[in-house]
Amino acid sequence: MIKIFSILLINNFLILINLKKLSKIINIFDKPDKYLKKHKSNVPLLGGIIVIANLFILSFSMIFFENLFGYLIVSKKEFASIIFFCASFFILGIYDDKFILNPDKKFIISIIFSILTLTLNKNLLIDSFDLSFYEKKIILNDFSFFFTLFCIIILINALNFYDGINGQSLIFFIVVFSYLCLNSPLQTFYFVLIFICVFILFLNLKNKIFLGDSGVYLLGSIVIVLLIYEYNVFKTIKFADEIFLLLILPGVDLLRLTIMRITNGKNAFYGDRNHIHHMLIRKFSLITSNTILLILAFFPMTLFIVFKLDFFISFVSFLILYVLSILFLKLNNKKKTIRKKLDDKK
User: Quick check: pTM over 0.90?
Assistant: First the structure.
């Protein structure tokens, strides 16, 4: 483990000192548009590239040192399907970063990639699940494929919608990986993922790089695979509602935005500045905004796991906190708008 982390440390140090050269070679930048993207200058979208570079080094070093997957044995077909799934979403993301793919096309391509992966790998199919508040196991039978596909598409889009300010998505991924790491046989692998995310977070908070769609899609696809394997194969997650509470923040924000856009006659996939992170950053600093998002992400799981409250209490408590936060931020934005109009009249 020490040898692998030493290699990753050297690899990331080389990335750090050659960041400008790497940015020019990759030549994918996020350009400000004064609407959705309000940063002052072009920022390289290298998050996904750095994750891929680290995972490549990790795979290569495992040949010589140790197996990070412990006793896990998967067939070649199963392993190939996982690589295909993650690589496909990475390529989709990097293409979108470079050429700005139409959201509707991106949605359809995501479905195609997911269908192909689920056809190849039956271990990724959710054919049944348990709920903490219901004694009987819920068997999906013929609905298994479509339910799994629905979960994948909703989660990958929720994570993509959730990305918006520096540090936000990376902190959320660190939270998820840290939680999954607790009882998993893949603990070392989770430590590696957290290490990679922390390194990118350091650069992201300094505005040196953005995670980009390539980074969000890649890390999101990894989260999806790990969540399903932890539940289906390793049995480290007992109840499906545990996963629901872990991912509830980006999910609820996706639902709110979708309803708002459809109600206003807009395409649900086209961006705006009504995300919770946009509302927070208009009121608070970057650090405070990310701290509030971190609290919101941890809150339901803390109630459910630490304080042993039931699912409904944890869920409703989160919803109340989330709604109150949105209402407070909306009220603050209205006050700012009124104040600005009065100042303009003067």
Answer: yes
Q: Any idea what the Cα angle at residue 302 is, between residues 134 and 283, rounded to 5°?
A: 125
In a domain, 27, yes or no: yes
Question: Looking at the domain assignment, is residue 60 inside a domain?
Answer: yes
DSSP notation for 174-213: HHHHHHHHSS-TTHHHHHHHHHHHHHHHHHHHTTS---HH
Could you give the angle at the alpha carbon of 38 between the alpha carbons of 35 and 43, nearest 5°? 125
Question: Which residue, chain included where needed, has tokens 């046989």?
Answer: 185
Check residue 262 and give its pLDDT. Answer: 92
Is residue 306 classed exposed, middle or buried when 0-12, 13-18 and 19+ CB atoms within 10 A define those classes? exposed
The total number of structural domains in the chain stands at: 1
Whether 320 maps to a domain, the answer reads no
Parent domain of 84: 2-274
The pLDDT, as a whole number, for residue 343 is 67
Mean pLDDT (10-residue bins), the chain, 346 residues: 86 96 95 71 95 90 63 77 96 96 95 97 96 95 96 96 95 97 91 96 96 97 97 94 97 95 89 91 95 97 95 98 96 78 64
Residue 104 makes CB contacts below 8 A (sequence gap 6+) with 267, 269
Contact (Cβ atoms closer than 8 angstroms) between residue 270 and residue 106: no
List strand residue ranges (DSSP E) for the chain, in order.
29-30, 43-44, 128-131, 134-139
Give the helix/strand (H/E) hosting 97.
helix 76-99
**Is residue 217 one of the residues assigned to a domain?**
yes
Return d(Cα 252, Cα 268) in angstroms, integer: 14
Give kind and range of the element (H or E) at residue 133.
none
